[in-house]
Amino acid sequence: MPAPQPDSTPQATPAPEPDSSPQADSSPQPNPAPQAAPQFPNADSAVTLRGAVGPAYFPVALLARFPYAMMVVGVLTLVVAARDSISLGGLTSAMVGLGTAIFGPLIGAAADRWGQRRVLLLAGLASSLSLFALAWVAYSAFGTWALLISAFLVGATAPQVPPMSRSRLVGVIFRKLPLARQQKTMNSTMAYESAADEITFVFGPVIVGLLAATLGGAAPIIGAAVLTLCFLLAFALHSTADVVPKNSATHREPAPVGQLFAPRLLVLLAGALGIGLIFGSTLTVLTSFMSDLGYAERAGLVYGAMGIGSAIFALAAALFPASFSLEARWLSFGGVLLLGTIGLQFASALPVLIIVLLVMGVGIGPTLVTQFSLVAERSPHGRSTTVMSMLTTAIVIGQSSSSAITGFIAENFGTQISAVVPLVAALLIILAAVANALGVSNSRDYARD
Q1: How far apart are CA 202 and CA 310, in angstroms?
Q2: Please, is 53 exposed, middle or buried when counting C-beta atoms within 10 Å of its C-beta (0-12, 13-18, 19+)?
Q3: Could you give the CA distance from residue 145 to residue 293 in angstroms, rounded to a whole number?
Q4: Is the pLDDT of residue 420 over 70?
Q5: What pLDDT does 19 receive?
Q6: Distance CA 219, CA 395 (A)
Q7: Where are the domains of the chain?
Q8: Are 153 and 99 in contact (CB under 8 A)?
Q9: Distance, CA of 442 to CA of 159 (rounded, Å)
C-alpha cells in the first residue's frame, strides 16, 4: 500500500481553531521554541513524511500489524477445528481479549517510559512463544483450563504495533515537518493508518481462512508467530523507534494518569469498543452461518467482503472536504454501519450476506479513521502511545468479548438470533457519536509532547 503523500493529499479535517492548534497550545509558554530545539533543531521545509521515516517503514509497519489482527480470529478458528466447539472457541478468544485488556495499555505505558524498541523486542519474543504454545495445547490432551491460560498469555504479550506506529508518525510530523504542512500531513497519515488497520483487521481473517482451509486449523496461529518473529522485530529495530521521546529521558513529567479517563477520551474508547464488537460478532455470525452450510473454515474468506468498502472509504477519508467535520463523519458513517447491521437481520442467503458485509465495510472504514484522528488530537502530553494502545485495546476487547457472546448465542439459539449482537454494537457506536457531537473537547497536546 502506498505511503501517505503529505504534499498532494487534500485536507481531510477542519483546520484547528486557534485555541486548539499546536501554536496556540504553546503560545502561553514563554519560550516554546527552545524547548523543542534540542531534540529537533532542523525542520527542513522540503522534507516529506516518507523521506523522514525512510522507504522501508510503511511496508514493515503494515506487515508487523498482521499477527495482532490474526490472533483473535486465529484462536477462534484453531479451537473450533481442534475442539469442535464454537462456544469454547468464543470463550478462548475472549481470554485473548482479557489478556490484551489488562496488559495492552501497560505495554503502551512502558513504551512511553522506556522507549518502544526495548518493549517491542521483549513483547515480540514472548508473543511468538505464547502463540506456538497455544497451537500445541489446542491439539494436546490438556483440558480447557490450559487452553484458556494459553489464550490469556497470547493476549497479554500481544505487541501494540498500531498505536506505536501512530505515535512514531505523529512524532515525526510535529518535529521534523514544517509547521505549514503539519495539519495536512496529519490528516492523510491518520487516514492511511486507519486504512492499514482496516486491511489487517479485515484481511487478517482472510489469511486465517486461507491458511486454515489449506494447511489446517493450527496454521494461522503458527503463521502469526512466524510473522511476529520476522516483521515485528524489524519494526522494533527501525530507526523511527527513537523519534518518540522516552519520559525517562526528558525533564518533563507526563500528564497525570487521571487525564487518560477524561470524557473526551472515554467517548472515543466507547466508539472503538463498538467497532471491536462489530468485528467479533460479525465474524462469529458468519462462522456460524458458514458452519450451517458445512464450510466453517471458509468464513474468513467471505468476511473479506467487508474489507473492500472499508479499506476504500478509509483511504477516501483523506479526500473529504474540510466542511465535513469529524463529528459529522462519525454520525454519517456510523449510520451507514447501522443500516448494514439491520440488513444483516434479514440475510438468509450467501449473496445477500456478502452485499450486507460490503455496506457495513463502507461504514466501518471512515468511522475508524475519525476515531483515531480524534484520539491523536486529544492525547495528553507524554501519554501518546498509552492512549493509542487504549483505543486499540478497546477494539480487541470488543472483538474477543463479542466473539464469546455471539458464539454462545449461535450455538444455543441459532445463527439468526446471534445476528442481533452486531446491531447492538452499531447502536453503541451511534450513541458514542452523538455524545462526541454534543460538545466533547477536542484539544491537541502533541505539540508539547
Answers
A1: 8
A2: buried
A3: 31
A4: yes
A5: 43
A6: 24
A7: 58-245+256-448
A8: yes
A9: 28
